[in-house]
Amino acid sequence: MAKLVLIRHGQSEWNLSNQFTGWVDVDLSEKGVEEAKAAGQKVKEAGLEFDYAFTSVLTRAIKTLHYVLEESDQLWIPETKTWRLNERHYGALQGLNKKETAEKYGDDQVHIWRRSYDVLPPLLSADDEGSAVNDRRYADLDPNIVPGGENLKVTLERVMPFWEDEIAPKLLDGKNVIIAAHGNSLRALSKYIERISDDDIMDLEMATGEPVVYDFDEKLNVLGKEKLGK
Prior knowledge:
This is 2,3-bisphosphoglycerate-dependent phosphoglycerate mutase. Keywords: Gluconeogenesis, Glycolysis, Isomerase. GO terms for molecular function: phosphoglycerate mutase activity. The protein is 36% helix and 13% strand. It is built from seven helices and six strands, in the order E-H-H-E-H-E-H-H-H-E-H-E-E. The chain has helices at residues 13-16, 30-45, 59-71, 98-105, 107-115, 152-172, 183-194, and strands at residues 3-8, 52-55, 79-81, 177-181, 212-216, 222-227. The mean pLDDT is 96.
């Protein structure tokens, strides 16, 4: 039976300052580093061994993966980075303080932007200096693919090709996989894996630095789910 571990990156500097982050590349906070290292210790204590690792192209997720693998003596395993595992793009909200945004637009509206399945945030134009079109890590992408804002539905649609092409085949082959990514890209994967409804996905939380372990059968049906450290 294959195992899949999902882990949201440790607390980032913008988590700490309560800002919408999305595709902005911010680092881990000191607490985030400690969360990532502690997650690695939990992985080691649980005796989890991985064959492959996947992460996004954003620093906070990459560093979290490396801390987890280092603490569990598995830094050597094959690793793939992909933009398809990035956090959802928060559009024009990126960089804004969440509390101040709620005061301006109302708590209900901000909750919808953050948690709804199919409502888009205000979009960021391609000619904005903060657009990912200007970021070298996306230079090989068709500029029309680079988002100006995403909801969870769109995030799921761009995560799924990578799941189907790269992750699921390894699990079907009996390989153990770890994915270090972001709250919403992992919520999207969880929605698909657990067959969570569009309404219920609003209530799913992914805690920073908390490894979530899935056990699958030979057809990738979920046999069990465990949060390490709980």
